[in-house]
């Protein structure tokens, strides 16, 4: 995963903690929407989500704003 611009990596443990929090608040009636990289790890982690959707989105991370779509 791309993490070069981040001060520190979002660890696997933090992903699992976020997932547990999302499940907890969802079970208490909250509507939860998360956005993340579409990877085998995140697909597996959120496999029981009510809806899981892959989107193509533009990324302009450098001065070159002509980059294509990424998921």
What does this structure look like?
This protein is mainly α. The chain has two helices and two strands; from the N terminus they run ααββ. It has a two-stranded antiparallel sheet with strand order 1-2. The longest helix is centred in the first third of the chain and has 16 residues.
Task: Reconstruct the topology from this structure.
Elements: H1 12-27, H2 40-45, E1 57-58, E2 69-70
Antiparallel strand pairs: 1-2
Outline of the structure:
This protein is mainly α. The protein is built from 2 helices and 2 strands; from the N terminus they run ααββ. A two-stranded antiparallel ribbon has the order 1-2.
The largest sheet, given as strand count, sense and whether it forms a barrel, is: 2 strands, antiparallel
Tell me the Rg in angstroms.
14 Å
Compressed to H and E, one letter per element, the order equals HHEE
User: Structural class, from secondary structure content?
Assistant: mainly alpha
List keywords for this structure.
two-stranded antiparallel ribbon, mainly alpha, 2 helices, 31% helix, 71 residues, globular
């Amino acid at each position: 995963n791309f993490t070069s611009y981040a001060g520190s990596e979002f660890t696997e443990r933090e992903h699992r903690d976020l997932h547990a929090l999302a499940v907890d608040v969802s079970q208490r009636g909250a509507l939860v929407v998360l956005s993340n990289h579409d990877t085998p790890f995140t697909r597996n982690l959120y496999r029981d989500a009510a809806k899981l959707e892959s989107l193509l989105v533009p990324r302009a991370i450098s001065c070159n704003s002509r980059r294509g779509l990424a998921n």
